[in-house]
Specification:
single chain; alpha/beta; Spore Coat Polysaccharide Biosynthesis Protein SpsA, Chain A; 2 domains; seven-stranded mixed sheet; three-stranded mixed sheet; 14 helices; about 15% strand; globular; Nucleotide-diphossugar_trans; Glyco_trans_2-like; Glycosyltransferase 2-like domain-containing protein
Length: about 350
Amino acid sequence: MSAASIEVIIACHDPSRPLARAVSSLFQDVRVRDRVRAVIVAHGTAPGALEAQLTDVEGDWQVVPFSDGVRSPAGPFNHGLRAVRAEYCAVMGSDDYLEPGAMEAWLAQADESGADAVIAPIRLQGESRMPNPLVGLFRERRLDASRDRLFYRTAPLGIVRTQTMRDLGLTMAEGVRVGEDFEFGIRLWSLADRVDFARNAPCYVIGTDAKERTTYAPLSLDERFEPITRLLDDGLPQVLTAAHRRALAIKLVRISVLGAAHTLSAQNAWRDDDEVIELAAALRRLLALAPRVLEPFNLQNRRVLDALLHEPTISKVTAEVQRSATATRWERWATRNPLYMFHRESMLRRYALYWFARERKK
């Protein structure tokens, strides 16, 4: 049995990845270095090629082989997570790394609070930290998936109590091109007894200097929505509270439906009107999850959503997307029912939180 307190699973399919940077960042906090073990899963590549990169890295690490012939990190992540014996576990991309002090802060918070998960603050390499999850100004402990907008952060970056992961049956979704961690995160944030946010801890950094990241490759509409369809078909919404169902539906409409409509329209990449109808069907399925899902959406977005619901054609949706690009400040802030302008999911509320968070840093 491992003496480590946390095992971090890193999936790596390409020896050209900056793997040594990722692994060494796990051991840079001297006071907790002996509590950390790194397990690098060599996904369809020779373990020796990865081990050669790590010869100068001081710490408890090992490389294990795995091959499933699938271009997805889900398989190697699941392989590593199944073998975890430490109290805590975590996943990490081979392109990513931790800022100094991050691991020490996360472990300290988990030890003190007994949380099932501690969410790490994140940032893209070379940029400032991202306001995701967009929790309230003074919210850090015992977060709620609806109140604290946790569903906008499905990637379980940070640390998770291993027993909680197993009790909830959390695994990465295999067979999807992207979004392998989507259901893992949704289930964790909504079903775990306690989730904390390490708001003031150093960040988990998402590396952007790799030669190629499969996540950035173009996606079809079916590929975009496959993780969502799986989650809905698995029946998870039926075991969520009404507040959580609504929060989940709002997030998916905002990020997935509107995101697809804007991307496909801006790139002139719609296949045909049938594809627009397909997206409209996905929207209607989300609206069926909870009442009044569209109420917090601003006027700018409501016009695009109304086009999908009432006139799902390439010409109409593209026209509304183009029109939304020139929306006035009022259209970006206002909702059809003025009472919803101050809803926690409204854009006005988001702008206010962004502003206050920025002012606190000055």
